[in-house]
Specification:
Distance between the termini: 20 Å
Mean pLDDT: 96
Oligomer: single chain
CATH superfamily of the largest domain: Aminotransferase class 4, branched-chain amino acid transferase, N-terminal domain
CATH architecture of the largest domain: 2-Layer Sandwich
CATH topology of the largest domain: D-amino Acid Aminotransferase, Chain A, domain 1
Number of domains: 2
CATH class of the largest domain: Alpha Beta
Shape: globular
Bound molecules: pyridoxal-5'-phosphate
Strand content: 25-35%
Number of helices: 7
Radius of gyration: 21 Å
Length: about 350
């Protein structure tokens, strides 16, 4: 594997910032990992001070949208060892997205090595309070200067990071959207493509103006089957059993979703991955079997749902997702090595920074 060249210049800024209350995405750490794709291969992997990157006005990502990203978190475990949660899943998903968007794969071994070295270097930026973490943002975009519809021949893969204070899991209100869609069969919904998020911005602003926190996306054909939430997958508990929409090509394959399915089963719950319709949810609400719902994603971990606005109805949830809360506590404990990681999800980072 190619050697990562390291140019390390710590600023000491993290000493003057309260990392535990830092709002994710507002403060950035000192360095970035960066690697260039040209002539059919990835070249020159390096970690260097984070700085602005000169971009040609014809950079293809800006026009044709070849841009994909990932998101995962680093925490501190026993003896202050930095830990990553299932980074192999992010490596795989990045390449799934790359394939869908006509972009080159980034070697999984290099992805993991880059994350580990980067986190070892930025270790002092990992917040320590409960529910906090260092958010890591790996992403790839086309930076070839060219006008025309074809796959770019030059790309950048970059990782940068931002300390993330605790997300208070206040119950959220979702608006079941029946005018706009996020993803259609055959589209890009299962890829973590930047354009998916661009298309979601206006409908989300409209839902917020109605008093809701996020959109609950429905299927593109009938506006009937639940897909997912803005940046989370969703789980429902009906008559004691859990249901989450199956991966059908238009739902993101969330790492938290995968983990929640395993944890629920481990705790003895039945979990089914299948299409779930608004009709079924409304019926369960009306006959009193709709017990809880929660969103699941890296940024918030678990967010209990208190209400779904659907047409002229307000579907209210009777409880603040007690099972969801328990799952969140278990996941947080695994992520900080307070309990055993019997699933083998945690990757320890050798925190020794090379001289
Ligand atoms: C659209 C969408 N769905 C679901 C998720 C949850 O995925 P994960 O658990 O991997 O963060 C995310 C966040 O990445 C997302 O952007």
């Amino acid at each position: 594997m190619m050697q990562i060249k390291e140019t390390i210049k710590p600023s000491g800024r993290e000493q003057n910032i309260d990392l535990n209350t830092s709002v994710m995405g507002t403060v950035f750490t000192d360095h970035m990992f960066i690697c260039d794709y040209e002539n059919g291969q990835w070249n020159n992997p390096r970690i260097e001070p984070l700085e602005l990157i000169a971009t040609h006005p014809a950079a293809m990502a800006l026009h044709y949208g070849q841009a994909i990203f990932e998101g995962l978190k680093a925490t501190l475990g026993k003896d202050d060892t930095p830990l990553l949660f299932r980074p192999d899943q992010n490596a795989k998903r990045l390449n799934f997205s790359a394939d869908r968007m006509g972009m080159p794969a980034f070697p999984e071994a290099m992805f993991l090595e880059a994350l580990k070295r980067f986190v070892a270097i930025e270790k002092n930026w990992i917040p320590t309070a409960e529910g906090t973490a260092l958010y890591l943002r790996p992403f790839m975009y086309a930076d070839e200067a060219f006008i025309g519809m074809r796959a770019a021949t030059k790309y950048k893969f970059i990782i940068f990071a931002s300390p993330s204070g605790p997300f208070f899991s206040k119950p959220i209100k979702l608006w079941a959207e029946t005018q706009y869609i996020r993803a259609a069969n055959g589209g890009t919904g299962e890829a973590k493509a930047a354009g998916n998020y661009a298309a979601a911005i206006r409908p989300t602003e409209m839902a917020k103006a109605k008093g809701y926190d996020q959109v609950l996306w429905l299927d593109a054909r009938d506006f009937e089957y639940v897909q997912e939430v803005g940046t989370m997958n969703i789980f429902f508990k009906i008559a004691g059993k859990f249901i989450t929409p199956n991966l059908n090509g238009s739902v993101l394959n969330g790492v938290t979703r995968l983990s929640v399915i395993d944890l629920l089963r481990d705790k003895g719950f039945e979990v089914t991955e299948r299409p779930i319709s608004m009709k079924e949810i409304v019926e369960a609400f009306e006959n009193g079997t709709l017990e809880e719902a929660f969103g699941a994603g890296t940024a918030v971990s678990i967010a209990p749902v208190e209400e779904i606005g659907y047409k002229d109805m307000k579907i209210k949830f009777p409880a603040e997702a007690p099972v969801g809360k328990d799952i969140k506590a278990t996941m947080d404990a695994i992520k900080t090595q307070k309990i055993e990681d019997k699933f083998g999800w945690i990757v320890e980072v050798d925190s020794a920074v090379k001289a």
